[in-house]
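Need residues for this backbone.
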């Protein structure tokens, strides 16, 4: 199989990709992730996942390149990574007792053929009613300031949820593996046949 490149500096995405027991390289894409005016969450993650993959195509022409991006949406508003404690408090307070939808775009680029395969996975999370103390204690323990929505669902963040609804819980962490397996198959890579 052609060598894979993960177009991401995210340690979370690297850990997820390791689940597929594939050899891969990774590199950090350099793109502007600012949403465009009136861009929907779905359009944003599709554009950014494709942009991340395309940004590394010239540098890695012999790899299949995986790009991925994620945002949360609450009442139609795009919610990204909090970046700091105060923003994380605001995000989790907003989500408390409510549901949010997470959009995760994934793109597989074959630089040889310039073929782009892209999907967007959605995942809905219903949050428990959270007290300020619970939010503070959670943030103090996990510090998820580099995570869209201010939580790590693979860790203690699961305590924030009342329910989850979606095809692939890996998409909440930032890399929808079920969709990736589908996209790799389009490029002739059957992971269970190697």
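Answer:
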């Amino acid at each position: 199989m052609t060598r894979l490149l993960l177009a991401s500096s995210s340690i979370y995405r690297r850990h997820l990709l390791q689940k597929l027991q594939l050899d891969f390289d990774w590199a950090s894409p350099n793109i502007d992730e600012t949403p465009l005016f009136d861009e929907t969450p779905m359009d944003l993650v599709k554009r950014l996942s494709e942009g991340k993959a395309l940004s590394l195509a010239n540098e890695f022409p012999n790899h299949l390149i995986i790009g991925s991006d994620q945002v949360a949406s609450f009442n139609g508003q795009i919610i990204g990574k909090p970046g700091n404690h105060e923003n994380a408090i605001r995000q989790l307070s907003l989500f408390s007792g409510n549901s949010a939808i997470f959009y995760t775009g994934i793109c597989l680029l074959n630089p040889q053929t310039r073929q782009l395969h892209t999907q967007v996975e959605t995942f809905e999370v219903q949050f428990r009613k959270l007290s300020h103390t619970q939010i503070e204690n959670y943030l103090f323990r996990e510090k998820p300031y580099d995570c869209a929505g201010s939580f790590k669902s693979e860790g203690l963040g699961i305590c924030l949820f009342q329910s989850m609804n979606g095809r692939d819980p890996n998409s909440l962490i930032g890399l929808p593996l079920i969709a990736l397996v589908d996209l790799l198959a389009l490029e002739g890579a059957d992971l269970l046949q190697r």
